[in-house]
Structures are given as C-alpha cells and as structure tokens.
Amino acid sequence: MSEILSSATLRRLVDQWITEGRHVAGPRLVNDRLLYGWLESAGQLTLDGETRPRNSIKDFLFPRHEKLYGYKLGRKRVELTEVAPLVDEQIVIAARPCDAALGPILDRVFNWDYSDATYNRRRELTTIVTLACQSFDAQCFCTSVGSGPDDPRGSDVMLHALDEGILEIRCLTEKGRRLFAGQTEPSALKAQVGAGPEIRFDLGKVGEFLEGGFEDAQWPEMARRCLGCGVCAYTCPTCHCFDIVDEGAGGQGVRARNWDACQFGMFTLHAAGHNPRSQQAQRQRQRIYHKFRIYPQKFGTLLCTGCGNCTRNCPVGLGVQPVLSAISRKMQSNDEL
Amino acid sequence: MRKSARPPFTIKTTMNANIYLPDLMEVVQVRQQTADVKSVRIRFRDEERARAFSFRVGQFGIFSAFGAGESPFNLCSSSNWQDFIEFCFRRTGRVTEALWNIDEGDIVGFRGPYGNAYPMDKWRGKNLIFIGGGIAMPPIRCAIWYALENRDQYGQITIVYGSRKVGDLVFQNELDRWAEYDNVRVVTCVDPGGETPDWKGEIGFVPTVVQQADISAENAIALVIGPPIMIQFTLPVLSKIGLGDSDIYTSLENRMKCGVGKCGRCNCGPAYVCKEGPVFTLEQIKRLPKDF
User: In A32-116, which ranges are continuous DSSP H helix?
Assistant: First the structure.
C-alpha cells in the first residue's frame, strides 16, 4: 500500500500554510521562466512544464544576501546589534531531488569545526518537499554522479506524480510526517520511477584524471570560451562561496555575507597584487576540483548533484557536464590506444 | 572517485553563537613603522574575554574597521603578552585605509585566533633560523619574541631580515634589542640601491645574504616568510646548506573572508589555508598542487 493525495489537496495545504504565516517557496513562472521563489498563493505553484527551475533552492537555506549583524559608529564607540533570528517555518514545495540534496552537502561546510548558527537555524526551520522527476533535458546528469530522479537525500517528503492530479506521497522524516499528518489516504497506486537521464560520463575515469591532471593542457583549452560571469556558481545548488562586506552609510550599516564565485578574478587576489588564480583556466579548474576531489576528500560525497544548471544557464555551453564528458572521453580514448 | 576516511560528523547546535561576530577591541597604541606600514596594539574591552583569550604564535585573526570591512592579519605579538595583542598592516586597500586613520581609544573588531601555529614545542632544543622580507617580519616577530622569552629552550637564533630599502624595515627598533640576547645573531640587508649613507647592514638580496651568512643547518629549523620571489630563491639556498624539507617552514597568506573554512577562497588545492594553515612545511607545500 502507498499513501496518496490530490494536487488539489496539496494546493489547499499550500494556501493554508501561507495563511498560517509559514513561508512557502516553490517553482513558479516569472516572465515565462520557471524559477524557485516565494509563493504568495498556491495558484503560483507550477508543478509541470520545464524540467526544472533555472535557479536552485539554495536561496532559502543560504540566502544570496544575509545580514550577519548591524553596526553603529559613535565617537570612540561602536555598537553591534544582532540580527533577529529567523522564527517562521519555511517550506519548499516541489523541489527537485538534485536541489533537495544540497542540505546534507551544505551542512558539512557550515558545521565542520565552526558551526554557523544562522545557517543551522534556517535549516532546522525548513521542510523540503521534493517532487520526483519524470522528464529530463539534455543538461540533466544526476545519474552520472550517483544520484537519480527519486534520490531521497535531503528530502523530508518525496512526491511522485501519478495520473490525473494524483500524487503518491512518502514522508521520509518526522518534519515531513508532521506537515502532512491526516492529509493523505492509503491507495493501491504506486509510482513507477524511470531510469533518469542517460549516463553522460564515467565518474571513475574523471577521478583518475583529477588524480594527476592538475596541470593538464586540457584546462586552458576548455576554459578558453568561459566569460567568467559566475552564473554556474550562482545557479548551482551546492556552490557556497561567499564574501563578507560592510554595507552602510553615515556611520551605520550592516555586515553582510553575499554569494561570491570562484570564477571571478578578484576572488583570490592578494593585497600585494599576487593572484594564485589569475587566469580563467585556473578558476575553471578550481571549480571542478572543488566539486569532484577537494570536497569529496574532506567530506566523502561529491559537491555536485547533477542538476545541470551550470550548463543550462551558461552563455557559452560550459559547465560541469560538458567538461567532465570531455575528460571522460579523453581518458577512454587513452585506454584504447 | 577515491574516497578518503570520512571525518565524524555531527551538527553542534550553537544557537546564540554567531561565529562572525567580532569582539570589540580598544586601540591602545598605534605606531607608524614605515611610510605605509603601521602596527596597532589592541585590548579586549571585556575583562572576562581578555582573561579567557589565548592564542599561539603563528595564528591569525580577522580584524575589522566597521564601515569598511574585514581583513586577515597575523597576530604579531608574542602569546606571552597579556595586556594586548598586536597586528601590523600595509596601507593598500579599503580596510587598511580605514585602519590607517585610527587613533588610540578607537574601536576595531577582532575575531580569532584562527589557523594552526608554529610548532614552538617541537622546535625546543633546536637552533632557529628566521628569514623575513619586507612586511613579512611581523609574522616572524611573534615567534622571535616567544623564543627569546623562553631563551633556555632554544639554541642559536639567527635572524635575517631584508627589505627593498632601509625605510621599509618594520620593527627596526626591536632588531637591536634582539641582538642583545645571548646567542642571537641579527643580519639585516637592503636591496642594492636601497641603502642610506649611514646604513650598517648588508647590501644584497635576501637569498644571497643568507648564502653568505655562513649559517649552520645542524639541528636547525628555518622559518621563511616573504614575497613569493624571495621565498623561491631562498629555499634552494637552505636546501644547499643541508636543511631538509620538513625543517623549513613558511606561512601562506591567501586572501580570506571568513577565516573558518567556509567562504571557499583560501584553499591551495585540498588545503584550506585558514584551517590547515597558514603554517606549512616545505615538505607539505611540495605535496600541494601549484595553486598559490
């Protein structure tokens, strides 16, 4: 037996949550483009159409702009004010599995040694309701990084679309069960999960290449057309680099953290003028190494969920999948020689 | 993908601790060292914090001028000093421009200490060779004072300090004081053309001066900090006199924002300089990819 609910019930619940004062986010059309955003009503929730939103749910756990504290300057005096902690519950509805997986991945970054209380608070207050994928585009590659269309990692609830507005629902955590208690009904219907996108590269071969490929001639070759715009990092669920800046005027303001990206030349520029990554190729290489070697060596999983947003949004068709496919092909043809 | 051993992982919920919130520090002394370098002594305004605070020489902090931002600097005072901590900076950007204008009694922010430290315990019983260039003297100075304050625990101390010109030497007034200690040799040098008529030190580049200084590598370690070009040419000299890669130490100073292993910019390959560094041996550096 499984549990089901209708999409009409889901929408009714979304409206109810919003009325109750919870913040609900989900895929919605903005100027005909599917993006995750805060919902004002369930009518905005878009459950079909494009394969996945062009952004990620990262915004809701790790906002692109976040006040760390406020400052006020006086004569020989500084007053720091803490930002009021988040108190309202957040619900992300119809996240894709490749987005939901970011929680456990970012947990490690924000908690190794030093615990980031703001992040943890947001994470504790957020429930992630995932919608398993049924369609894929040419940029999807979850299956190439050991994931798939119904990977439960990071999800509190997994929804599967059945026929005619019916959803199978699997509550995976206590948070998820609480959210849907009494709202579902037993059914004999059971979702069939597809195989997902075809495997696009051999992860083992990529690992072999990265082992000794730091100074490979492939990097400058591949990075040549990169514009360094950073859209790959901004729309990536797992990219988490940030800057800390003071924003204010007239003796008061806030110290804030803003998303940053390793693709920018200023990112590593030293005060004395030296730049360890002065070239775009070095910055492209850093992004791939961080995701497929540095983070995995530290924390045991990849820093990539296979969502494909880096390529989907890239003005010149770069991103993880084309780069790793090229590496994988190169390694395979080396084997054949 | 090769998987290494996964560290144990638990979320420590520390609801009230904002790891980015600095301590407010009172400036107790500002000293202009060169035309564009100042050293600043600061102390905790909170007595309890002051008592609880400790650090190890070699560690760094993130210092802030509110309204301008934060920058990482080495804690260049000895960890034995109780009344204040000290940092030193060159006027070069937005934050250091703001710090340049502070006076005694002003308030700056400090968080830390961060990173690893010089293995002063491991260096006990050894001869110490300190080699610094230009603005890189502050991160060596803390170790020099620490060693001098525990003089019986360390052997011969050799300090080679060079800069482009005489006016660029920082903590000049301390060089003579160091030389007064037993078994301490201080060699100063300036680049050719950087001398003044009354200059009594050597004239030459640091690697050459080190080479000609007849320094013994026996039972010694070397701490070398300076511009990349100085380090690059000094290392072969040290190897030649017989120091092994694990006896040569440096401190990497990559751009940082958070200081606590999260903001993602200070890594050199797999090594996060703010966490695994800033102190590395040459042996460790040789194992890292060329990403610095």
Answer: 58-61, 97-100, 102-109
According to DSSP, the residues that pair with B108 across neighbouring strands are B25
Bridge partners of B158, per DSSP, are: B129, B185
Domains in chain B: ranges and CATH = 23-114 (2.40.30.10), 127-251 (3.40.50.80)
Tokens 């390959």 map to which residue? B269
Decide if B86 contacts B137 (C-beta within 8 A). Answer: no
Which residues have a Cβ under 8 Å from the Cβ of B89 and sit 6 or more positions away? B37, B38, B40, B71, B73, B96, B99
CB–CB of B265 and A260 under 8 A? yes
What are the tokens at A218? 């492939």
Cα–Cα separations (whole angstroms), residue A130 to A38, A149, A313: 16, 10, 22
In whole angstroms, give the CA distance from residue B138 to residue A128. 49
- Nearest residue to B57 (alpha-carbon basis) of B4, B97, B122, B116: B116
CA–CA dist B281, A154 (Å, integer) = 39
Which residues 272-291 on chain B approach chain A with CB closer than 8 angstroms?
A: 275, 289-291
Longest dimension (CA), chain A: 73
Which of A76, A207, A294 is opposite residue B270, by nearest beta carbon?
A294
pLDDT of residue B277: 96
- How many beta carbons lie within 10 A of that of residue A249, not counting itself? 7
Q: Is A209 in contact with A216 (CB distance < 8 Å)?
A: yes
Residue B252 DSSP label: -
ipTM surpasses cut 0.90: yes
For an interface test with B, which of A80, A123, A302 has the most B Cβ atoms less than 10 Å from its Cβ? Answer: A80
Rounded distance, CA B247 to CA B238, Å? 10
- Give, rounded to a whole angstrom, the gap between the first and last alpha carbons of chain A: 53
Q: Where are the beta strands (DSSP E) in B33-156?
A: 37-44, 60-65, 69-74, 85-90, 107-114, 127-133
Asked if residues A19 and A38 have their Cβ atoms less than 8 Å apart, the reply is no
Strand order in the sheet with B248-251: B202-203, B184-190, B157-163, B127-133, B220-225, B248-251, B279-281
For chain A (337 residues), the mean pLDDT of every run of 10, in chain order, is 95 97 96 96 92 96 96 93 91 98 97 94 96 96 97 97 93 96 94 93 96 93 93 98 95 96 96 93 97 97 98 97 95 81
Q: Does A66 touch chain B (CB under 8 A)?
A: no
| Structure tokens, B287 | 């194992």
**Contact (CB, 8 A) for A268 and B255:** yes
